[in-house]
Amino acid sequence: ALDAFLATLGIASQDLAPIYLRLSDLSAEGTISLTVDGQIVFGDGDGDSWSVSAGTGLQVTNTGPASVQAGIRSGGPILFNGTGDIILAGDIETQIPGAGISVLDSALKLAGNQRLTTPGGAILLDQIQDPAGSTWTLTLDAGIGNVVIDDKVGTNGGPTPAGLVIEAAGDVHFLSSNN
Questions:
Q1: Is 96 within 8 Å of 117 (Cβ atoms)?
Q2: Which residues of 86-98 are buried (b: 16+ CB within 10 A; e: fewer)?
């Protein structure tokens, strides 16, 4: 399935080789589902500050870093369920009430002051880090949805963000005993 998708983009993949996939202005009316064994970059090709516009949802499974260099928006839920880090240099938003944003097993590494926004959907995050060391702020707006941070904000005294702002949420939960 990935080979067919890459072929539509004019990219040839090699069997068993890591893939570096740069996506610019990816748009679909339905759900976009990507599985990448390697690095993936979401970039803006037309200057509108958005890299992905998914009609009914976005699911990304990545083993290498996923670099969000421009915004991602979706009419449904957004799910990052791989093991590679998510480097956040663009905003992420859902546009349908109740649609959430989830980063399940990856560190969310800030590369600028960014925001995650849902109109009442949950925001579920594993770790939040600032590799620049207390430089960047992450703003979360879940409307009436819950915000859950499963692991740490910063890692064992390591790269902690300059700030974590929760503008709106139903409930907020920090599940790690080390936050």
A1: no
A2: bbbbbbbbbbbee
Q: Which of 48, 53, 19 is nearest to 35 (CA)?
A: 19
CB 78 within 8 A of CB 102: yes
Distances (CA, A) of 66 to 31, 89, 107, 154: 18, 11, 11, 19
User: Rounded to whole angstroms, how far apart are CA atoms 76 and 14?
Assistant: 32
Q: What tens digit of pLDDT does each residue of 85-99 get?
A: 999 999 999 999 999
Residue 8 is inside which H or E element, if any?
Answer: helix 2-8
pTM of the entire predicted model: 0.85
Largest CA distance in the chain: 47
Helix, strand, coil percent content, the chain, rounded in steps of 5: 5, 50, 45
Nearest to 154 by CA among 125, 174, 131, 177: 131
Are the CB atoms for 122 and 147 separated by under 8 Å? Answer: yes
Structure tokens at 153: 């904000």
